[in-house]
Each structure stands twice: as structure tokens, then as C-alpha cells.
Design goal:
The complex is a heterotrimer of chains A (about 475), B (about 170) and C (about 500). With about 170 residues, chain B is mostly helical. In chain B, about 80% of the residues lie in helices and about 0% in strands. The longest helix of chain B has about 35 residues, at about 120-155. The model of chain C has no long low-confidence stretch (mean pLDDT about 90). The chains are: A mainly alpha (about 475), B mainly alpha (about 170), C mainly alpha (about 500).
């Protein structure tokens, strides 16, 4: 496998975005190009599965940005998993977006698809990054390329949402992440990801390491740890496909992926386990899990409820990282994939409901289940997967997370996870319950039916994915083999 | 310190005392006067002080002007250091051009405002600067409010949305 | 022949614009004068590049002006530090010369355009002269040449407020220049020399006298006035706001940097880092002032409604970054200063040019009047956004590299509070740039305003050249950092 491939894979969506822009006048061509790009990208990344699982670590340095620090791509299992999830869900999101954007007659669709492609490019760049500088460059590129998507409507509301979005993400990254990188560089003389961690001989005490770890985790604003989670609900002003992209495909997944990557390749699981430097952030994550679930229960706006649910679910992954056990990494890595499939289904459903009925509040969904059976069944499947009940894939990640908590001796964390599942039941299952078991509101016309096929097919596929991964979690276990028992 | 040494200190460094005095007078004039021409005069005094400073620097006690003498005894003549004089010629040129440019600006200001008092000019044009900034800010707020209203009207089922936003901000 | 030409290059950088200025006056017409200006600046840019390469390969160049050997004659001395600055000055001048034509045609009365170009050439000549000279008094003369012509240039602004702004700048600038003159006088008094290298070699013997200390103080205050360090910055916002667009772009990108260079030259080459920073507490003073400049400048920028004034206040903050770098007196600090000088020159040049292009269309540049321009002038607005991101310090732009090296330099000796100040100021930049971006993209055009088109191609080309330079330097900063490190070694090596 040629190393040059890595660079081309990152650049590919960005280059294709030019073609997308050029095809702006012919929507059908434009969308076909987008979907084809997405499929090709996925295929290109899939080519790396074999070499990486057999222990290869392909690496490519394009040029030196700063003396001694290059723009470097290195592929390792976690990155490959994230890249596969992101590029695998992208074609579905694109098909869905085409249906949604046309169904709602949105403006500036070309800009939308161009930014979409750029965002994927950035996400792949993050997944492949071989050092902290490369990671940071693509991290900010992801923030900036999604900003026009979040503010797509261009009105006052989306401007305010965009303000919070950009404000929090840029503030945390420039204010915390950048100094953290430079401190790491000054202490260790290197910012290249290393399987052994960078701080082995640095003699960093628990306080220093803990503070630096906190700086990194809060710097990764996309992981939405409280109190820097406000951008996620604020970004709800965006069209639904963007929310799906943000929540499932690229943005938040990039955040938690970075947390995992930092834990494994900068600090080292063993180092964190020995020093206990990640303890503090573990409690922060536990608090976020429960706090966000509680807030989600109070939200009537469907998308806002899902947003807080995401905040909560992300902290599962951060928990997995911070408990400093290889089971935790395994569980966290699995949850990236499982949550992606479940959450993208939920958002696709929310968007489909809005496209078909223009309703966006949970309390308005009474009795809609019979008008839109596929959508609400999919919603039900995804909810159950998130809660972590068999036979849905979500059980696996929760299983390994709990095992990790037990392994590292944090019994309280098991309680937190269990309690969070109960809260999930309350705020997620309410929606299919209302749809199927409540009587329709009097103002509901009989003529309502499913959203366009371009919306329904992707959400059926992702919902099916939730079930498939329960019976067949092998791909993830193979990829994450370095951390598997 | 005896009286003699104080006197020596004063008269021996007489030039430098004058330099400081001139400089302070010039500086004070620049700061305190409103009239732009007087400001320029102050600036000139300030510069002149520096000229005197340089020329004093080149003085060697018992020396004469640095004009090469010919004939008997010319080898014994002690000359003042000529280089500072030359330097200060350049500085004088700079000073003159500054004054010329300053005066040209004053003429233009007089044409534009009909006054050469700084206060008048400030009052005529610059005092309003802050008000303008405020006015602009208000205009901006108005424009934004209008846009906000319009977007609220466009979104028909927006009543609940706002409520939801409020709750969002409170939490 | 070629050899002879190479030997004369240091002088040509000054002589070319100095000769071209009267030619412009003689031509008496705007169009040909612009062409002369264009040719001269590009020729100087080429010369600067050749000199840069020559110094990189062969080490410092010393050129005896008129054949009079230093220390008695005037020496032009090129080393790793000033070739970088010279490259910046000539580069910005060359690109802004492309930009100037349309902008000048719109803002300056056509019968005065040739004088405008003559003054611009003189200003350029002065800045180039400050950079290349190795003679303290000569530096003063060039500083006054550039200042005098910039007073005149600023006074040519289209509003009558430009006149008083120029006058105020004249008063402040002359006081600054005179202070510098006094400082040089004190040094001359103690060492009997005006050649910088010569002064440096004689200074240690008399370093403990009050005269030398006073000389240092006068020089620091004098140059600070010229580059508008925090408490003596009041002239800058008005001057930049009311100057013609092309002048704002050129002066904002170069003049302050060159004055900072002059101070660095005095502190490191003449006085030596050990004397200025170890024996005297100059470093601490400058650090405090630079933090004050960064925070107060950024804060003031947030509350501006005139975009040019906003950028001017931001310049005051950015000068804080540059001063902070060399005030650390470490190798990393000095090279961070040099890196940010270059990057800020490119960023501010691009921003002022983008704003100038909007002014060219609208004749006003308040946040209200540019509202909604993102859709009508997409190329210009995009240039502003990218350059603005660079100012904030987003990765893959030059501004990020500046932040990186500067943070590294301040954190290495453990000055975490300085790092915090840098970050806070960057985030304030996010706010004030964000205000402009929101006005451009999220607001409707004001009522009753006719739709406008893009700016002329030449203006856009110049603006985007600088913007792209920003991105290139952000992704591939190794050469710039290498040059900055050589510069730091050159000045610190000479001082110790």
C-alpha cells in the first residue's frame, strides 16, 4: 500500500468539493458527485483495514510546517475506526441531505454540499493525523468548515447559534488546546503520537499531568464536557442533515476520538493508570453523563433533547478514556461507532418527521406512529441501542465500559452508567411511546405519510446497522484488537 | 559641597542648563497651547534645544571655530570638533522641513475649518466622533432588531421556539 | 559587470526610490508616475531578495557609502535580521503598488496624484534606508524622511479630519524623532562614533555612566513613539483611519515594523542584550507595556464601528506581541518577534487592502454600511475573512505560526501569565473580527443602498496575493522560522 494514499485520501473530498461547486447548476449531477466521492472515500479507507490490523502503521510526512514538526499522517487502529465510521456514514448523510434539502426547498444547496465535503476532509485529516500539530490544524478546519453549515439559514437566530458555536469551539481550542500542545512540546520535546506515550521519562507529577490532561480535554471543546457543552444545543439551528453530520459523523466524534487518541498516544494508558492523573476528568465526565441526561428530560424540542442526549453519550466515551484501562479504550472506541449509528438514525428520524409534518416538539408527536411507521420504528431501534439493551449494538460498548470501570476499580462509575441508562429510557422511549400509543392530536391531518424515500432509506439502513452490530461486532473487535482482552 | 563647586557646576555646564530650559519651554508650549502655530513654534524650540546640545558637545575648552588656518602657528591651533556641527546641519534641515510641512498643514486646516485653534477643530469635527460611534452602534442595534423581528415573522410556528430558547439560556 | 552590480545592491535599494521620487514630480502626471512607482518597488523587491539570499549564503555584507570606509563614512550593513525586514518592506511596497492605482484614482485628486506617488516613494526610501543603514545618525535621517512623507500622505486622506490627524502625528512623530536624536547625541558624546558597530565596541568601557543610561532611555522612548507602544500610541488610530486606503495598507504593514526594527537594532547591536536587559530592567518594563498594549488595544478594537479604526487599534495590540517577543531577550523571543513582524505585516496589509476595496466601492467603511456586503463583494469579503482568521491565529495561517513561536518563547522561561495575556488578546481578536464578519454575512444591505459589484481586478489580485502568502507561511513556515532564527543569532551573537 503506497503511503501517498494517505495524503490523497485526506485531500480527496476537499478536491471533489471543487467539482461539487462546479456542478452547482445541475443538482442531480452535484449530488451524484457527492455520493460517489463518499463511496470512493470509504472504499479507499477500507483498503487500509488489512495492513493496519496486521500491525502496520503507514505514515506519510508531506512537509515541515515548523522546524522538526511536519504535516504528518499516520494511520493507527483508532484513527482507522473513526475514519471508517465518518466516511461510511457520509454517503448515507449525503443521500439523506439531498432528500431533506429538496424536500424543504433550502437555499444555497451548493455551498451546503461543498462545506460538507470540506468537513469530511477535515475529519479524515483528524483521523489520520500523526502529531498534535496536524491534529490541531484539521481540528480548526473542521470547526470553520462546519460554521457555514450551522449558520446555513443566515438569519438572526442562526447567527446567534453560530456565535456560540464558533465562540466556544475556538475559545477552548486556542485558549486551552494550543497552550497544552506547546507545554507538551516544551516538556517532552516531541508532539508525535507514540504508542508508549510521551511522558514516560518526563517525571511529570500527578498534579502536573492532571492539569495538562484537563487542559487537553477542555481544549477539545468538541467533546462537549460540561461546562463547555453549550455549543452543541446552540448548533441546533442548523438544518437536520447538518445536525446528523455534527452529532454522528464528524464533529463530536472527532472530539471524543481526540480524547481517546490523546489518552492512548500522548499520555499512555499505563501512565495515566499509574499516576491517576485522569481521575479528576473522569468525575467531570461522570457528572456530564448524568447532568446532560437530566437536562435532556426537560427539553420539548426534539432536536434539543437529542443534542443533550449526545452531550451525555459523548461523556461515556470520555469516561472510557479517563478510567485508564484498556477495556475503557475498547468500550470508548466501540461507542464511537455504536453511538454514531444510533444517533444518526435518531437525527434522520427527527429530520424526516420535520420534512413530512413540520413538527419539531416532542409533545406534538402524539399518534404519528401510524402515519410514519418506518421512521418511528427506526427511532425505537436506535433508542434501544443507545439505552444498551440487546439485541442492539449499543450493549457492547456499554458492556466493555462497565468492564473497564470494574477493571480499574471504579465501582461508582458502574452505578453512573446504570443510572444513565435509566434516564435514557425516560427521555428517549417517550417519543416512540407517544407516537404509537397516544391518540393523534385533533389538528393532525389524515393525509400525512412518510418523508421522501431519500430520507427514509438512509435511516432504515442505519437502524438496521444498530441491529447488525449486535450479532456481528467482530469488525470493531478486530480493529480494536490492541486493547481487547 | 561648597558654594564654589556648585557655582562651577552651574556655570561650567551652562550650555546644558540652557538646553534643558529651552527644551522644557518648547515641550510645555507644545502641550499647553491650543493654537497650532504656537504648537509648531514650541516644537521648533524643542528641536533648537537639541541643536544647541549637539553644538555644545563639539566644543573643546580653549578651542576655536573649526576653520582651517594656514600660516604661522596653525599647527598649535585647537579646533572645536566639527562633526557635531555637520550633523546638526542635517538636523536643522529636517527641522525646517518639519516646520514647513506643519505650517502647510495648518494652512490646509485653516482652509477646511476656518480656525487654527485645536479646540475649535476638535469641536467642529472630532468631538462628534464619539457621538458618531454611538450613533452607528445604535443604528446597528436598530438594524439588527428589525432583522430579528422580520425573521420572527417569517417563521410562522415560532412562538414555542422562543420559549424554548429562553429556557435554554436559563439552564 | 555583474560583480559590480552585486556590490552596489545595498545602495541601490535606497538610491532607486530616492531618484524615482523627483522623476515622478517631473513627469507631472498620475499614470506614468504610478508606473515609475510600480517599477521601482518591484526592482527593490528583487534587490532585497537577492540581498537576502546573498546574506544567507555569504554572511553579513558591509557597504561603504561613497567609498568612505567605516567608521568615518556611512556604512550600510546587511545581516540576517535586516534582510528579513527589508524583504518585508519591499515586498509589501511592491504588492501595494499594484493595489495603489485604482485606489489612488478614486481617492486622490488626479492633478495631485503624481505628488502622492513621489511622497510614497520617499516614504519607501526612508523605510528601506532605516533598514539597511549601519550608522546611527543616518538612521535618524531616514526615519525623518519616512515620517515626513507619511505625514504628507496621511494628510491627503479624503476627509478633512485627515489634516488634524496628520498634524497630531507630526507633533508626536517629531518629538519621537528628536528624542532619538538626543539619545544618539549622548552615545556620540561618550563614544565619539556614529557607526553602530563601532559604538558597540566602545560602549562597554563607559557603560556605567549616567549619560549612556540616559541615551538608552531617550532612544527607547523615541522609537516607541514612532511605533506606537502602549502609552504613546494615541496618534495611531486617527492617522490610520483617515489616511487614503493604499497609504493605510502600506504604512500599517511596514512603518511600525521598521521602527520596531530600529529599536531592536539599538538594543541588541549597539547596547547589547546583556546591558539593556540584565543590567537595566528594560525587559520588565517592555513586557508590562506590551501586555497593556495587547489588552487595551484589543479591547478598544472591540468597540469600534469604523472598520479601519478597528484595524488600527488591533495594530496597537499586535505591536504588543512583537515587543513582547524581543523584550524576553532570548533567542526564541527575538525570532518570535521577527516572525510576527513578517506575519503581521502580511495580515494587516491584506486586511487594510480588503477594507480599502470596500471603501473604493462604498466611500465609507462603517460596520453599518458594509453590512451584507458578503454577497455583493464575495471575493473581497472572503479575503477579509481569511486574513482575519490569520489575525486570530487559526492554524494553517501565518498568524498561528506567530502565536506558536511566541507562546513557546514565553512559556520556555515559565512566564505563564504572559501566555495567558497572549491567548486572551487572541480571543478578543476573535470578537472584533467576528463583528465585522457577522456584519458582512448576516445582515441585510442597508435600505436605499444600490447593489455594488466587486472591486477592480488589480486591487483583488494584490489583496489575495497577501492572503495567499499568509496561508503559505502558515503551512510551510520552516523557511521563515529559519530566517528568524538566523536573525536572532545574528543580533544576540553580536551583543554578547
Amino acid at each position: 500500500m503506497s503511503m501517498q494514499w494517505l495524503g490523497w485520501l485526506v485531500a480527496f473530498p476537499a478536491l471533489m468539493s471543487l467539482l461539487v461547486a462546479a456542478c452547482g447548476r445541475w443538482p442531480n449531477v452535484r449530488e451524484s458527485v457527492s455520493v460517489a466521492t463518499a463511496a470512493l472515500l470509504f472504499a479507499g479507507i477500507a483498503l487500509f483495514i488489512d495492513p493496519v490490523t496486521s500491525g502496520e502503521r503507514p505514515s506519510l510526512t508531506l512537509f515541515e510546517v515548523l522546524p522538526g514538526i511536519g504535516l504528518t499522517f499516520t494511520l493507527e487502529p483508532l484513527g482507522l475506526l473513526f475514519a471508517l465510521v465518518a466516511s461510511g456514514l457520509w454517503p448515507l448523510t449525503t443521500i439523506y441531505a439531498a432528500g431533506y434539502m429538496r424536500g424543504n426547498e433550502e437555499h444555497a444547496q451548493t455551498r451546503f454540499f461543498v462545506c460538507f465535503a470540506l468537513a469530511i476532509s477535515a475529519a479524515i485529516g483528524i483521523a489520520f493525523s500523526g502529531n498534535l500539530l496536524t491534529l490541531f490544524i484539521f481540528y480548526e478546519m473542521l470547526t470553520l468548515s462546519t460554521y457555514p453549515l450551522v449558520t446555513h439559514h443566515g438569519d438572526v437566530e442562526s447567527r446567534n447559534g453560530g456565535r456560540v458555536y464558533l465562540g466556544i469551539l475556538l475559545t477552548t481550542s486556542i485558549g486551552f488546546f494550543l497552550p497544552a500542545i506547546i507545554i507538551t512540546y516544551l516538556i517532552t520535546g516531541s508532539i508525535t503520537f507514540d504508542e508508549a506515550g510521551l511522558f514516560g521519562e518526563a517525571g511529570l507529577g500527578v498534579l502536573g499531568a492532571g492539569a495538562l490532561y484537563a487542559l487537553f480535554l477542555y481544549g477539545t471543546g468538541k467533546a462537549a464536557l460540561m461546562p463547555f457543552h453549550r455549543w452543541l444545543p446552540a448548533a441546533m439551528v442548523a438544518p437536520t442533515p447538518v445536525s446528523a453530520l455534527l452529532h454522528a459523523v464528524a464533529v463530536v466524534k472527532a472530539g471524543v476520538f481526540i480524547v481517546l487518541k490523546l489518552t492512548v498516544y500522548v499520555f499512555g494508558v499505563q501512565f495515566l493508570a499509574d499516576t491517576g492523573a485522569s481521575e479528576l476528568m473522569m468525575w467531570v465526565a461522570a457528572f456530564t453523563v448524568l447532568g446532560a441526561s437530566l437536562i435532556a428530560m426537560t427539553r420539548d424540542n426534539l432536536k434539543a433533547r437529542l443534542a443533550y442526549s449526545t452531550v451525555s453519550q459523548l461523556s461515556y466515551i470520555v469516561l472510557g478514556a479517563t478510567m485508564a484501562s484498556s477495556f475503557g479504550i475498547l468500550g470508548g472506541g466501540m461507542h464511537i461507532a455504536m453511538h454514531a449509528f444510533a444517533k444518526i438514525t435518531l437525527f434522520f428520524c427527527a429530520g424526516a418527521i420535520y420534512t413530512a409534518t413540520h413538527r419539531k416538539y416532542v409533545s406534538e408527536l402524539d399518534g404519528l406512529g401510524y402515519a410514519m411507521p418506518i421512521t418511528f420504528t427506526a427511532f425505537f431501534i436506535a433508542s434501544v441501542s443507545l439505552i444498551g439493551i440487546p439485541p442492539m449494538g449499543g450493549i457492547w460498548s456499554k458492556w466493555y465500559l462497565m468492564e473497564g470501570a470494574a477493571d480499574s476499580g471504579h465501582t461508582a462509575i458502574i452505578m453512573v452508567l446504570a443510572l444513565s441508562s435509566l434516564l435514557n429510557i425516560v427521555y428517549l422511549l417517550e417519543i416512540p411511546t407517544r407516537a404509537f400509543f397516544h391518540n393523534p392530536r385533533p389538528d393532525t391531518p389524515r393525509s400525512w405519510h412518510e418523508a421522501p424515500w431519500a430520507c427514509v432509506i438512509p435511516l432504515s439502513i442505519t437502524a438496521a446497522g444498530c441491529i447488525v452490530w449486535f450479532f456481528y461486532p467482530l469488525p470493531f473487535l478486530t480493529l480494536l484488537a490492541p486493547w481487547a482482552p | 559641597m561648597s558654594l564654589a563647586s556648585i557655582a562651577d557646576n552651574f556655570f561650567g555646564l551652562f550650555n546644558y542648563w540652557v538646553v534643558i530650559l529651552l527644551m522644557m519651554i518648547g515641550f510645555y508650549t507644545v502641550i499647553s497651547h491650543d493654537n497650532l502655530v504656537k504648537k509648531l513654534i514650541g516644537l521648533n524650540l524643542f528641536q533648537t534645544a537639541v541643536f544647541v546640545f549637539y553644538i555644545s558637545m563639539g566644543k573643546i575648552s580653549g578651542s576655536t571655530a573649526p576653520i582651517l588656518m594656514s600660516g604661522k602657528g596653525s599647527e598649535d591651533v585647537l579646533y572645536a570638533h566639527p562633526l557635531p556641527h555637520v550633523l546638526i546641519l542635517t538636523a536643522i534641515v529636517v527641522g525646517v522641513s518639519t516646520t514647513a510641512l506643519g505650517l502647510a498643514l495648518v494652512v490646509r486646516i485653516n482652509e477646511a475649518y476656518g480656525s487654527i485653534e485645536e479646540d475649535d477643530v476638535l469641536e467642529a469635527d472630532f468631538e462628534t466622533q464619539e457621538e458618531e460611534t454611538e450613533e452607528e452602534a445604535e443604528r446597528m442595534a436598530r438594524a439588527e432588531a428589525r432583522q430579528e423581528r422580520e425573521s420572527a415573522q417569517q417563521d410562522h410556528d415560532d412562538g414555542r421556539e422562543e420559549e424554548d430558547d429562553d429556557r435554554e439560556t436559563r439552564s | 559587470m555583474i560583480e559590480a552590480f552585486f556590490a552596489q545592491m545595498p545602495a541601490l535599494v535606497i538610491v532607486l526610490p530616492l531618484l524615482a521620487a523627483p522623476i515622478c514630480v517631473l513627469l507631472h502626471r498620475g499614470g506614468p508616475s504610478w508606473f515609475v512607482y510600480l517599477l521601482t518597488t518591484w526592482a527593490c523587491f528583487a534587490l532585497a531578495f537577492l540581498l537576502f539570499v546573498q546574506v544567507k549564503i555569504g554572511g553579513p555584507i558591509s557597504y561603504a557609502m561613497g567609498g568612505w570606509a567605516p567608521p568615518f563614512g556611512i556604512e550600510l550593513r546587511l545581516d540576517a535580521l535586516n534582510t528579513v525586514v527589508l524583504l518585508l518592506v519591499t515586498g509589501i511596497a511592491a504588492i501595494s503598488s499594484v493595489y495603489a492605482k485604482a485606489s489612488v484614482a478614486a481617492e486622490i485628486a488626479s492633478e495631485r496624484a503624481y505628488l502622492f506617488y513621489a511622497a510614497l516613494l520617499l516614504c519607501f526610501c526612508g523605510l528601506a534606508g532605516i533598514t539597511v543603514t549601519g550608522d546611527a545618525f543616518n538612521l535618524f535621517v531616514f526615519l525623518e524622511i519616512s515620517s515626513l512623507s507619511s505625514y504628507a500622505l496621511i494628510a491627503m486622506g479624503s476627509k478633512r479630519r485627515a489634516l488634524l490627524s496628520a498634524f497630531q502625528y507630526l507633533i508626536m512623530g517629531t518629538i519621537g524623532g528628536t528624542f532619538l536624536l538626543i539619545g544618539i547625541g549622548f552615545l556620540y558624546m561618550m563614544t565619539g562614533s556614529l557607526n553602530m558597530a563601532d559604538i558597540a565596541s566602545r560602549l562597554p568601557a563607559v557603560a556605567d555612566t549616567r549619560t549612556v543610561e540616559a541615551g538608552l532611555a531617550f532612544i527607547v522612548v523615541g522609537t516607541s513613539l514612532k511605533f506606537a507602544l502602549f502609552p504613546v500610541h494615541v496618534w495611531l488610530p486617527n492617522a490610520y483611519t483617515y489616511a487614503p486606503s493604499s497609504v493605510s495598507a502600506f504604512i500599517a504593514a511596514t512603518a511600525t515594523k521598521v521602527a520596531v526594527y530600529a529599536l531592536m537594532r539599538f538594543l541588541f547591536t549597539v547596547f547589547g542584550a546583556a546591558y539593556a536587559f540584565d543590567q537595566l530592567p528594560l525587559g520588565e518594563v517592555l513586557l508590562v507595556l506590551s501586555v497593556a498594549a495587547m489588552l487595551s488595544g484589543s479591547m478598544a478594537a472591540i468597540f469600534q464601528t469604523d472598520v479601519k479604526r478597528l484595524l488600527a487599534w488591533s495594530s496597537i495590540a499586535q505591536i504588543g506581541y512583537i515587543v513582547m517577543g524581543f523584550a524576553l531577550a532570548s533567542s526564541a523571543g527575538v525570532s518570535a518577534s521577527v516572525v510576527h513582524m513578517v506575519n503581521h505585516g502580511l495580515i494587516k496589509g491584506a486586511l487594510f487592502m480588503a477594507v480599502g476595496a470596500m471603501f473604493w466601492r462604498l466611500r465609507t467603511i462603517s460596520l453599518n454600511d458594509i453590512a451584507g456586503l458578503g454577497r455583493q463583494m464575495p471575493i473581497t469579503s472572503a479575503a477579509f475573512v481569511v486574513a482575519g482568521l490569520s489575525l486570530i491565529g487559526v492554524p494553517a495561517t501565518g498568524g498561528f505560526i506567530s502565536k506558536w513561536v511566541l507562546l513557546e518563547a514565553v512559556m520556555e522561561p515559565g512566564h505563564y501569565w504572559l501566555a495567558a495575556a497572549i491567548l486572551v488578546s487572541s480571543l478578543m481578536a476573535l470578537i472584533y473580527i467576528g463583528r465585522v464578519v457577522e456584519a458582512l454575512y448576516f445582515r441585510e444591505r442597508p435600505e436605499g443602498q444600490p447593489p455594488v459589484g466587486e472591486a477592480p481586478v488589480l486591487m483583488l489580485t494584490a489583496t489575495w496575493t497577501l492572503v495567499l502568502a499568509n496561508i503559505v507561511l502558515g503551512l510551510y513556515a520552516t523557511p521563515l522560522i529559519g530566517a528568524a532564527e538566523r536573525a536572532a543569532r545574528a543580533v544576540l551573537g553580536a551583543g554578547s
